[in-house]
Amino acid sequence: MITDKHFQRLERAERLARLMDRAFRVPGTQIRFGWDAIFGVIPGIGDSVALLPSLYIIGLARGAGAPMSVLLEMAWNMVLDWFIGLFPLVGDVLDIGFKANIRNARLLRTYLEGARTA
Fold first, then answer.
1. pLDDT tens by residue, 4-58
2. Which Pfam families match (predicted)?
3. Between 100 and which of 64, 74, 81, 84 could a Cys-Cys bridge form, CB atoms 3.0 to 4.6 Å apart?
4. Domain count, the chain
């Protein structure tokens, strides 16, 4: 049974995803980026540091009862985001467009809304 606690976890995941992927806007454009992209420009460790909030979002999804299929898709998004970020400059630009944390928060929302109506 889906409760308010599950949706509180979703709200935390969405808030963190916005900080990581959409916190800032390039002036005069619709391009948004977050702390994930900023961490990503730090050579060597930036993309690995950005994994920690991503892992937390997956942990929130697990705590909200998301099935293994959803958790695996979220993990794939996280690993792909990390891998993309390994390529200097090109990876940083692609990382801004990929927004793995936003994708993962949406996966959790889709699961919870579907489970609530089932």
1. 899 999 999 999 999 999 999 999 999 999 999 999 888 878 889 999 999 999 9
2. DUF4112 (PF13430)
3. 81
4. 1
